[in-house]
Structure of Endonuclease/exonuclease/phosphatase family protein:
Amino acid sequence: MLTVLLLVATAIPLLPLAHGIARVGDFPRQQFLGLALALLAAAPLFAEFTVGWLLILLSIIATALTHARLILPFTPLARNQSVGFDPQHDNGDRFRLVAANVKMSNEKREAFRREIEQADPDILVLMEIDESWHEALRPLTRRYRHVVSKPQDNSYGILLASRLEIAETTVACLLTDGVPSVITTVKTPSGLCFRLYAIHPEPPVPHRGSEGRDGETALVALRVREETTPVIVTGDLNDVAWSRTTRRFRRVSRLLDPRIGRMVFSTFDARLPLLRWPLDHLFHSAEFRLVAMRRLRPRGSDHFPVAFDLALCREPKAEATPEPASAEDLERALRLVREAATREETPIGSDWEK
C-alpha cells in the first residue's frame, strides 16, 4: 500500500495540470526519495522473489530514480550554471541582496529586524508586509536611499529597499488583484544597470487551480526574455526549484540558477527540519557572478531569509546554460498567462495570517 501511494504521489506532479493537487506534489521530492530509499533498504527483509514482489521492487527503484533525476542538478554532482566570482579576473560591481518572507503574523519583529541589519544588504526585498510590519521596520528602512513599499493585510504586501540607485520603478499586480510585484532598474556605482523583478505569486493548494502562480511566473519569464539589460528575478515563488513550472521558467527566461551544481538550498518550512523545500529563489542573467549565498536565521518566520552576494560584470559568462525554450514551452507560457488573466478569484491564503 505504501508503495502504491508513493507511486501515485510521484506520478501526479508529472502531469501538465495547472492545479494545486498536482503542483503541491512537486514539493516533497527529497522526502519521497528518502522514503523510496528506505523501502529499498527494507526490501531484502521481505524478499519473496515472486513476480509481484519483483514488480514492487522495480516500481520503488523507478520512483527513486525519478526523484533523484530531478534533485541531482542541485548537488555538487552536477555542473554549475552560475559562474563563481574570481577577483583576479572579474571586474564587476559587488552587492548583497537579501530576500525574505517575514510571515505577516510573526511577532518577533525586533529580532527579525536585527537579523537583517546584521546581514547589511545593499538591496532588500521583503514579502508579507502589512502596515504594522512597515512601521516596525522603519529603523531599518530609513538607512536606505530608496524605499518602495506596498503594505497589505492579505499576506501579499511587498517592500523593496535599495542603497543603489533605482529608476523606472513600477509596483503592480501583474495578473491577480491584490498580489503586487515590484519591477525596477538598478544602477551600480560604476554605471552598470540591471532590471530587478521582486515577485511573490500565490501558493498552490489542493482545492484550487494554480493558474495564478503559474501564470505570473510565466508572464515574468516572457517579459525577462525580451529584456536587453541584465536581469535578476527574486522572491518567494511558492514553487520548488525542480518543478515542471520552474524548469520551464528557466528555459523561457534564459536565466541561470545559482543553486544548480551547488546545493538544494531549502528555505521553507524553517520550523520543520524534515519538511523543507526550496521556495525562495534568485535567478539571474549571465552577466552576474556568484560570490556567496547563504540562509539567515528565520527569527519567527516560516521562511529562511536568503542572502546572495553577487557581482555584476560587463561580459556574460556561464558554466552551463538552461536548455533553450521550445515552441511548446512558449505556447504553454502564453496559455498560462491567458488562463490566469481571466480568473476572478481572491488571492489564495489572504486570510491565513490574520
Notes: The first helix runs from residue 2 to 11. The domain at 92-337 is CATH 3.60.10.10 (Deoxyribonuclease I; Chain A). The mean pLDDT is 93. The chain has two domains: 2-74, 92-337.
